């Protein structure tokens, strides 16, 4: 942030009095522009023994596969966000079930939440942000072409839990990748 969104003056980056973190502070109007982690919410939607995946038409990770997921909007619930992202990316309708994974990604200031869900019908197709959308059995999952580590983790939890026949909630924290590449 370079300019105050309240008054347009150049902002300073410093620790405000009584605070512990540096913030963007406006020297003209005094506004402190707090920045907080973002929630990424998605759905692991099942149809019989298959899972709905989308191949990304946008960066980052163009051409890689993901669960339908995206940034939560203001004034919606997390379950609504999961259903909305599935509608937008896969033009698919789901019944949202239990919250399944919560993965902290502190080095990029994000929290990823994945719900289990049930696909309501087979009338899906690629949305604006997807190249294609398809249902995958476990043996057909393109593990080497999964877009994000949190999505791969959620899928592995899912197939492991399905083998064991129980469905605990999973929370985890993801360290930075080994290389910055
Ligand atoms: Zn200002």
Backbone shape: elongated
CATH architecture: Alpha-Beta Complex
> What is the averaged pLDDT score?
97
How much β-strand is present in the residues? 25-35%
What number of structural domains do the residues give? Answer: 1
Task: Count the DSSP helices.
Answer: 2
Structural class: alpha+beta
N-to-C span: 25 Å
Features:
181 residues, binds zinc ion, alpha+beta, Nudix_N, 3-stranded antiparallel β-sheet, Nucleoside Triphosphate Pyrophosphohydrolase, hydrolase activity
Quick recap:
This is NUDIX hydrolase. The protein is 16% helix and 35% strand.
Please explain how this structure is put together:
By secondary structure, this protein is of the alpha+beta class. It has one domain: Nucleoside Triphosphate Pyrophosphohydrolase (Alpha-Beta Complex), CATH 3.90.79.10. 16% of the residues lie in helices and 35% in strands. It has 2 helices and 11 strands. The structure holds zinc ion (ZN).
Question: How is the topology of this model organized?
Answer:
Elements: E1 12-14, E2 23-25, E3 32-33, E4 38-47, E5 50-56, E6 65-66, E7 69-71, H1 78-90, E8 94-105, E9 110-119, E10 130-136, H2 149-164, E11 170-173
Bound molecules: zinc ion (ZN).
């Amino acid at each position: 942030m370079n300019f105050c969104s309240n008054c347009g003056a150049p902002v300073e980056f410093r620790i405000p009095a009584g605070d512990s973190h540096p913030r963007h502070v406006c020297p003209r109007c005094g506004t402190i522009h707090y920045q907080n982690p973002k929630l990424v919410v998605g759905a692991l939607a099942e149809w019989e023994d298959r899972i709905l995946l989308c191949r990304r038409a946008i960066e980052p990770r163009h051409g890689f596969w993901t669960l339908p997921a995206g940034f939560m909007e203001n004034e919606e619930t997390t379950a609504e966000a999961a259903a909305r992202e599935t509608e937008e990316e896969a033009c698919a309708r789901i019944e949202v079930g239990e919250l399944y994974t919560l993965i902290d990604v502190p080095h990029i200031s994000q929290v990823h939440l994945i719900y289990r869900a049930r696909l309501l019908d087979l009338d899906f197709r690629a949305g604006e942000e997807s190249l294609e959308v398809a249902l995958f059995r476990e043996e057909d999952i393109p593990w080497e072409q999964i877009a994000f580590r949190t999505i791969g983790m959620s899928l592995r939890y899912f197939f492991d839990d399905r083998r064991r026949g129980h469905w605990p909630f999973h929370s985890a924290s993801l360290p930075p990748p080994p290389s910055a590449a």
